[in-house]
Amino acid sequence: xxxxxxxxxxxxxxxxxxxxxxxxxxxxxxxxxxxxxxxxxxxxxxxxxxxxxxxxxxxxxxxxxxxxxxxxxxxxxxxxxxxxxxxxxxxxxxxxxxxxxxxxxxxxxxxxxxxxxxxxxxxxxxxxxxxxxxxxxxxxxxxxxxxxxxxxxxxxxxxxxxxxxxxxxxxxxxxxxxxxxxxxxxxxxxxxxxxxxxxxxxxxxxxxxxxxxxxxxxxxxxxxxxxxxxxxxxxxxxxx
Length: 240
Known about the structure:
Layout: E1 15-16, H1 27-42, E2 49-50, H2 51-58, H3 72-84, E3 88-91, E4 98-101, H4 103-107, H5 111-123, E5 126-127, H6 128-134, H7 144-155, E6 166-168, E7 179-182, E8 188-189, H8 190-193, H9 201-229
Antiparallel strand pairs: 1-8, 2-4, 3-4, 5-7, 6-7
Helix pairs in contact: 1-2, 1-3, 1-5, 6-7
């Protein structure tokens, strides 16, 4: 596949319009695609997924933002729409229908870019550092700079290829990093995305879960390093 082109950077406006010629997904379609992309990498022995397994994955209470409660009818409708768009395939043979994604080829992006988009579809806006940590089981990015490089390519995607697929959100007061959001579901309301408004409880829960996952990953890294050095890991302390 040819390398992505780098047109001029987009103007910083209050809303980012849906890219011309690019398929605009519904939130349910994005959740289905993100779940298929996740399970293909994290539980390959169970992939492609049955309808029940896919429904369970879409309705997970962890590692999802926002949390959804889909029923079989909504899922089946989204699958039919995604198949018509060439983004999902149904496996033939066997008693139970199984589904696999065709996201990378259907959208026309590199593997690393597809991984980042899939994680943004599942967990909402994230910083480059959060994306690198959260995609560790999907793809081992070398460092944050590598993540930022692919995000920049998605931001600067040429109009001939459908236009940008991500946008950089305004920096929250008191934070050092900006979050990124995908544009696969159309315009992003930058005003609504600006920090300051009180988040709802599910949003807070998701952020707490993300922080807990980061701490667990860091703890595992320290334990691996201590094992390699032959020293005892530092004791853990329960939160008050």
